[in-house]
């Protein structure tokens, strides 16, 4: 498989890291010697528990037929919806208040689907199984990280699998909502009679401030940031990646180019220990597992998670 990668370079060991008593790795090997998956694998094997933060994006779910939002070719925002409006309208707060039916129709369709996680979802879960995962910030609303077994996660844009009143924020279960969606009912809050929506962040709604605070707090303990299947083109990825401590390695794994690295201080060079690895995302995750020598443990993990035989195959 042909991968492209950013230019290699020798990493610089910074004095501030060597004097950090919390840091888990001694000596020059603490940073990547060159921006390769081999170096990333070596680094992961030596890292202390709960030090990896993963930002996962829509491209880890697109192999299942789930569209991401903004890709020009297949992005959900660029598609017409039922001949009446565009999908970008469906996910707009003001539009929803005037006409909730299209979002209900979309939600109903999503809830009828049965998706299995990809290897990339299981990879995040496997990192948690290895007690390495500090937190998974997922930009996806499909719950597939959760289905893969990840418990240490934050759904940045919420989920289609829970419901909330747009005014008083009373929550409703998916079972409660699904019955009403099936009957094509407009769902009104039993507490304040306002509209109920799937618990996703609509365009025109503010991000909760605590997501930024949570991310900043996690960055204090993070020793490796993995961006998996995200082009970093949407908020809050843009904001939260600006100004973070860049002394630890950051790995960008995707099948498409990032939106604009420079805007996120993701320089992909030796000075910042950034690695960009472009290619099939599942295959890259499998390769990392293989390089870390964890194939046997992955197979045991796969049995526990009822993964399909091919999903845990690391011969790529
Ligand atoms: Zn309410």
Task: Give a quick rundown of the structure.
Helix content is 32%, strand content 16%. It is α/β, with parallel strands linked by helices and 316 residues long. It starts with a strand and ends in an 11-residue tail after the last helix.
Helices, strands, pairings?
Elements: E1 4-5, H1 15-18, H2 37-46, E2 52-56, E3 80-81, E4 85-86, H3 87-90, H4 93-98, H5 101-112, H6 119-129, E5 133-138, H7 144-147, E6 153-155, E7 158-165, E8 171-172, H8 174-182, E9 196-200, H9 209-221, E10 224-228, H10 237-241, E11 250-254, E12 274-278, H11 281-291, H12 295-305
Parallel strand pairs: 2-5, 2-10, 5-6, 10-11, 11-12
Antiparallel strand pairs: 1-12, 3-4, 7-8, 7-9
Helix pairs in contact: 2-11
Task: Write a structural description.
The relative contact order is 0.17. Helix 10 (237-241) links the parallel strand 10 and strand 11 (250-254). 32% of the residues lie in helices and 16% in strands. Helix 2 crosses helix 11 (281-291). It is globular. Strands 1-12-11-10-2-5-6 form a seven-stranded mixed beta sheet, with helices on both faces. A three-stranded antiparallel beta sheet has the order 8-7-9. The protein has 316 residues and is an alpha/beta fold. The termini are close together. The longest helix is centred in the last third of the chain and has 13 residues, at 209-221. It binds zinc ion (ZN). Zinc ion (ZN) binds next to loops. Keywords: Metal-binding, NAD, Transferase, Zinc. It comes from Nezara viridula. GO terms for molecular function: histone deacetylase activity, NAD-dependent; metal ion binding; NAD+ binding. Zn(2+) binds at residues 165, 168, 189, 192.
């Amino acid at each position: 498989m042909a991968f492209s990668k950013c230019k290699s370079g020798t990493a610089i060991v910074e004095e501030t890291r060597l004097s950090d008593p919390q840091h888990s790795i001694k000596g020059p090997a603490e940073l990547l010697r060159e921006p390769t998956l081999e170096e990333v694998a070596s680094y992961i094997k030596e890292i202390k528990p709960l030090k990896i933060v993963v930002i996962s994006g829509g491209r880890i779910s697109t192999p299942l037929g789930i569209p991401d939002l903004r890709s020009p070719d297949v992005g959900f925002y660029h598609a017409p919806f039922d001949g009446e409006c565009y999908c970008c309208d469906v996910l707009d707060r003001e539009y929803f208040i005037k006409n909730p039916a299209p979002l209900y129709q979309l939600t109903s369709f999503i809830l009828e689907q049965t998706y299995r996680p990809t290897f990339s979802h299981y990879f995040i879960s496997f990192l948690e199984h290895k007690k390495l995962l500090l937190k998974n910030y997922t930009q996806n609303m499909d719950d597939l990280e959760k289905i893969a077994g990840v418990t240490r996660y934050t759904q940045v844009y919420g989920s289609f699998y829970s419901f909330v009143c747009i005014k008083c924020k009373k929550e409703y279960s998916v079972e409660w909502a699904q019955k009403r969606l099936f009957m094509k009912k407009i769902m009104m809050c039993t507490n304040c009679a306002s509209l109920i929506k799937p618990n996703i962040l609509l365009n025109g709604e503010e991000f909760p401030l605590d997501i930024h605070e949570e991310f900043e707090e996690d960055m204090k303990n993070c020793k490796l940031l993995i961006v998996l299947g995200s082009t970093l083109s949407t908020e809050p990825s843009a904001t939260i990646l600006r100004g973070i401590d860049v002394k630890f390695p950051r790995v960008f794994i995707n099948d498409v180019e990032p939106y604009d690295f420079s805007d996120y201080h993701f320089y992909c060079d030796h000075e910042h220990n950034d690695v960009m690895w472009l290619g099939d995302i599942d295959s890259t995750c499998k390769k990392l597992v293989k390089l870390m020598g964890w194939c046997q443990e992955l197979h045991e993990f796969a049995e526990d998670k009822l993964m399909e035989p091919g999903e845990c195959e690391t011969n790529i």
